[in-house]
Amino acid sequence: MDFPVKSTSEYKNLSLEETYLFLHANNGGLSDAEAQQRLAIQGPNEIIEKQRNYFLEFILRFWGPMPWLLEIACGLSIVLTHYVEGLIIGTLLVVKAIIGQIHTYGSQKMIALLRQKLANKAKVLRNNTWSVLDAKGIVTSDIITIKLGDIIPADTMIISGEISVDQAALTGESLPVETRAGGIVYAGSIVKRNEATGMVINTGSNTFFCKTAELVKIAEPKSHQEAMMMAIVT
Length: 234
What we know:
Elements: H1 16-23, H2 32-42, H3 54-60, H4 65-79, H5 83-115, E1 121-126, E2 129-134, E3 143-147, E4 155-166, H6 168-171, E5 177-180, E6 184-185, E7 190-193, E8 195-202, H7 208-218, H8 224-233
Antiparallel strand pairs: 1-2, 1-3, 3-8, 4-5, 4-6, 4-7, 4-8
């Protein structure tokens, strides 16, 4: 059986009934066998961080259209005996690589902080019985309950109840967000008030949380040093 996947934002356009049909879910939750089948296909509900070779990443910062342009300019300056200009361009090229590496390290620290917000346990309805399970084993269509103080373990559509959640770390919203039946709450958010029952719609790498972490990884705004180098070259 195939288990369809939508981005969390796409679920905002679906009603609760449509979501039930799309995920082949029901209010009784999943059986252990169904959950294991989904887990085998979807993978665990966690962010798997790949091992990084920071030295190789640093070397690769000297490879690409922008570095090539600067390296050619530096080489031409030296050939034409414009040593000062060549030294300046070479220095800026190295400084840019160092700043980029520092930015990458900072992004990794931010991701580590985000990962600390992930829930370790969750109260899940399995085999028509409520149990506290490891959050890594949660799959789509699981029915969970969340209450005051809980960290939401996966992207979830509220089935019943109304809660207030703090999702500032994910969306930048400074005030808690009130969410009721049909609304969506994100993995890593913290319940600030009340209690609700929800249906898991995305886990692991498909969560809004993970997409945010990916944006943190790749976000490298253009620096002043890069603008200066372009001005020197042009």
